[in-house]
Amino acid sequence: MAYSYSKWKLHRTVDRSPPEQPYPGVSILKPLTGVDPNLFSNLETFFTLDYPMYELLFCVENEHDPAVMLVNSLIHKHPHIDARLFTGGLRVGVNPKINNMQPAYLAAKYPLVLISDAGIRMRDDSLLDMVQHMRDDVAIVHQMPFVCDAEGFAAVYEKVFFGTAQARMYLGADFMGINCHVGMSSLVRRCALEEAGGLRAFADYLAEDYFMAKDIVSRGWKMRVSSLPALQNSGTRSVGALQARLRRWARLRIAMIPTTAMLEPLSECMPLGAGAAWAAGQLFGAEPLPFFLVHVLVWFLSDWLMLRSVQNGSPPFTKVQFLLGWVWSECCAPFVLAAALLSPEISYKKKPKERNVRIAAMCEPYLQTRFRC
Q: What PANTHER family does the annotation carry (predicted)?
């Protein structure tokens, strides 16, 4: 289902012809913390967007952060782009990202707001594509997470995960109308966000993107995935860093939607194949091992097609590298979920101060997971 949907949904040709009515302006919020080797080139892609009217609002929590100098140099290099820098943030809750963005959000002047993480690299037509998906009844247009091409096993692992397991979940959920909103690159209609209380209304949630989408959609608005994926382009990649990130996401899912999270192993290749092989042996007398191997082979080939669809062509590595990355990704998935279950405390961005945070009203009383900011 996800593969068929991806062939229809992703990588459509962006219509660059002049519209009947002018496109609305977009305020782009860029929360930044620290500098990685690709940050300069990632940010510069926002200065070269093919869109008629937008502003760039950079948010840095600490005025001594090295990102300040980098942003100022880009503003000086592209004086024709409406860009401003906000430092210091404004504490409105426990979520450091919301606190960092709050002054820029209050100063934003356009009806559409794009929240874009520091590691995102934009194609010149990505914003235009997102705005074209913003119909009158749509309040959120978000990009499906994917990654830029890079070298090394960690890059293969990252691309395989986001191009197969993550893509299956994301596209399948969008097709069925399930909230799959990830806020790393998300265009929001400001009036709909203000109806929900603005950004500060979600400052007490660590998974602010999920609850923002849940609240806005509950008010009758719709949500769409754009046709161009979000290209994450971190300058430092490692297997451990990606697995730490996946564990953090798993802990959030367990806290927010525990009943669904408990069923996650049934969506993974190895546990599902083992269970299906046992069931086929019990019900039909089939040999479990050949059944399991055929199951894994079909899953592997399907994931190869899925990755090619998300990549819009051949991935930048060989089939042998894909096999190694795929086996590693699939074998690690159950252990990542188990680690999240055994250690439910969430560490967010390695902040030095630790606070126990309650996910709050929308999470229901049974959610007792402790959070560390």
A: CERAMIDE GLUCOSYLTRANSFERASE
How many CB atoms within 10 Å of residue 152? 12
Residues 208-230, mean pLDDT to the nearest whole number: 95
Instruction: Domain count for the chain, please give it.
Output: 2
CA 226, CA 10: separation in Å to the nearest integer? 8
Show the tokens assigned to 338: 């188990």
| 145-147 vs 26-32, strand pairing mode | unpaired
Question: pLDDT tens digits, residue range 125-140?
Answer: 999 999 999 999 999 9
Q: Are residues 302 and 154 in the same domain?
A: no
* 333 shares a domain with 271: yes
- Residue 45 resides in a domain: yes
* pTM for this entry: 0.89
Q: Is residue 224 part of a domain?
A: yes
Mapping DSSP onto H, E and C, the string for 6-27 reads HHHHCCCCCCCCCCCCCCCCEE
* Pairwise CA distance, residues 96 & 206, whole Å: 9
Which of 182, 212, 236 is where one domain is finished?
236
HSE-CB for 204 with a 13 A CA cutoff? 9
209 given a catalytic annotation: yes
- Residues 15-26: tens digit of each pLDDT: 888 888 899 999
As a dihedral over the C-alpha atoms of residue 332, residue 333, residue 338, residue 339, rounded to 10 degrees, the angle is 60
Selecting among 117, 209, 215, 303, the annotated active-site residue is 209
